[in-house]
Specification:
Length: about 120
């Protein structure tokens, strides 16, 4: 080990990656990549991932959902999430998508994730 390199401990962790993406109406046709609408979040449990989506869904009304899509979003955040939770618990991804007034699309999703976590061992001392 190099004398100036900090001691690092590695561990394999499991969680659920929660993302919120936005696509403009034009991006459907020109292959443009979706924009990240909120910072991705790694939830420790399926329930925490669904809770993060439900909170985000209720606070992202600024996207400009149509009244119909607002009703769908509220419906999903009140009871529709149960199926999404079951999907995550069985190792499957889940997503909820709404069409916006602009013709764009917003998508909330969560998927199981295995990742490598690196911890600086000298900070733990």
């Amino acid at each position: 080990m190099l004398p100036w390199a900090p001691a690092v401990e590695a561990s394999v962790e499991h969680g659920f990656l929660v993302t919120v993406l936005w696509r403009s109406s034009a991006s459907h046709h020109d292959g443009e990549r979706p924009k990240i609408a909120a910072a991705p979040y790694i939830a420790p449990t399926p329930h925490a991932a669904i809770r993060a989506i439900r909170v985000s869904l209720r606070t992202h009304h600024v996207f400009g959902m149509t009244p119909r899509e607002q009703r769908r979003a509220v419906e999903w955040s009140e009871s529709g999430w149960v199926q999404a939770l079951a999907a995550l618990r069985s190792g499957e991804p889940c997503a909820f998508t709404v069409v916006l007034n602009s013709g764009g699309v917003a998508e909330w999703s969560a998927r199981p994730l295995t990742y490598l976590c690196l911890t600086n061992c000298s900070e733990a001392l």
